[in-house]
Amino acid sequence: MVPRLIVVTGASAGIGKATAKRFADNNDKVLLIARGRDRLTRAVEEIEASVPGADLEPLALDLSDAASAQTLQHHIKATGLPVNSLLCCAGSVPRSEGGPEGTDVAATLTEWQEAYEANVLTSVIAVEGLLPLMSDGGSVVLYSSVAAYRGSGGTGGYGAAKAALHSYVHTLATRLGPRGISANAIAPGYVAGTELFGDGLPAARETMLVRQTALRRAGEPAEIAELGFYLCSPPGGYVTSQILQINGGSHHGA
């Protein structure tokens, strides 16, 4: 039986790594993409240690650069397999910040540009680059955030960038529907162990985020990965053009 080829971006840590592992558990062939070669190598080694015989292939690539699309296409063609599913987990919170009041315009612009490049362009470049190589009946999953609904503090570039993915998902679902390809977004709340916040959240902020949930706990990367796996499985095939929140009840409804 020919394995499915699954492409996961942002696969060196957190939700992306957990997602790659979930598909490896299913005996799929997984292409793991991330910018940092060393971290990506460690992620592959960790997954292989827990999933003996996993069919994993790492590719160090910066998907905020449009030229990376051609590199990705060449790499996929070399596998001889069509892409069954693409899960765009790459993203980050900008390190540059202007303050909410009296902010410097240049600093604010830098923050918004960084947020857009890291959270929107990484998805758009991967999707548009791989669509010609995707099999009909496949799946595209983008990763948004609860911040798209509630804002992200500061000048708001991160939350706004994630919200841009919602419109893109609906556009993709309409474009790809005739090919039987589903397109959805997952919007997680606070998930522990993702490295999204660099060196970690201050204890007081982490406590606040946990208290905001109905379940009174943080999410786990494996829980988010399971939802992504479902959306790329036959039972999830009729789900498309949806933004699925998974946040422990920290934000209710759409």
TrEMBL record:
Transmembrane segments: none annotated. Coiled coil: none annotated. One of its GO terms (molecular function) is oxidoreductase activity, acting on the CH-OH group of donors, NAD or NADP as acceptor. Residues 4-194 form the Ketoreductase domain. Pfam families: adh_short_C2. Belongs to the short-chain dehydrogenases/reductases (SDR) family. This is SDR family oxidoreductase. It comes from Streptomyces alboniger. The lineage of its organism: Bacteria, Bacillati, Actinomycetota, Actinomycetes, Kitasatosporales.
